[in-house]
Amino acid sequence: MSRTATSPARTAAPAPGPPPAGSAAVSRDPFFDNAKYLAIVLVVLGHAWEPLTHTSRAATALYLAVYAFHMPAFILISGYFSRGFDLSPPKVKRLITSVLVPYLIFQLAYVEFQHLAEDGADPEPFTLLEPWYLNWFLAALFLWRLTTPIWRTVRWPVPLSFAVAIMAMLAPEVGSEFDVMRVMQFLPFFVIGLHLKPAHFELVRRRWVRIAAVPLFACAVSTAYLLAPRLDSGWFYHNATVRDLGEPAWTAPVMTFALFLCAAALTVGFLAWVPRRRTWFTALGTGTMYGFLLHGFVIKLSRWWEWYDTYDWIRRPAGEVLVSFLAVALVTVLCSAPVRRVFRPVIEPRMDWAFRVPPRPAAAASATGAVTDAARSGPPAPRTSPPVRSDRSLRDG
What we know:
Number of domains: 1
Distance between the termini: 64 Å
Number of helices: 18
Largest sheet: none
Radius of gyration: 25 Å
Number of strands: 0
Shape: globular
Oligomer: single chain
Strand content: under 5%
């Protein structure tokens, strides 16, 4: 099986997002953990539904509707939680341990798993530069976060990110290193997330937005059902140029903005339905990276061992419902605390041994020395009058 095969399962992923720096675990907003869990459920459902689209038009409609927004929603949230990223040592350390190291580990793990599970097949060569299967998202997140200071500095970041996405679709040829095509085409969602504020998410809490989301999704599924026979799903994967899709150059800007508007509307509708309070799955939202990386082994195994072709009942309505239920159960288990404890060393390694302890600031050291000297020399002479502080000094601290 080729690494660059058009299998749609390779096009989706979750979005990891720690709380903003300095916030305690108890101050986490359950809304975002709920959103991440529900988004990873849609990711896994999309992967589970893909083989069903070959024979079921209803499954195709649901599949296309989900693929229209679930990755943009995840990437938007990832951008939102990357707002505080800079190139300071603590942030770089976090980027290495939470993104780069899991990328390296699972790049090897997926290839070795294929060697073991796919008997008689030509083994995939191990390479660090071409992300294998779900690893495209880790490569993209690594590059997006590295460029965060740029998107926080330039004057028109969002229009510039759209220009990058359009140029990617128009490029005569784009290499597969780090899946740069997806990096560029999904870039606007990450950049928009960087510039969102909590007040923007408050807007989707309004009652009329939740009500409007119902006909919105009904319209999306109905439209996907009508267009399913002739709609090229390759548009939703954001990993091809217009020439690869057999379309003229003028479709690049048109489809870029059309797909963005569709994804933006559905993302708003999705976030409007996300619970704001703590639920039974809120804690699972903190482990979406586990569900994302680990479910790929099961999905790939279902393809290599041809489960969908071996069991005919899977393609019947009852079978499709059961497949959906099993997909939700799978990702729920993979995000649970016991699974996270087992796989934490490879998905969230601490690796303190690999990093230098930051040097003690000179100012702090001198201040400490001054305090020590003062303590040795005894208490200072009493002042005759307290210092007078102006109103401005009081305001400025």
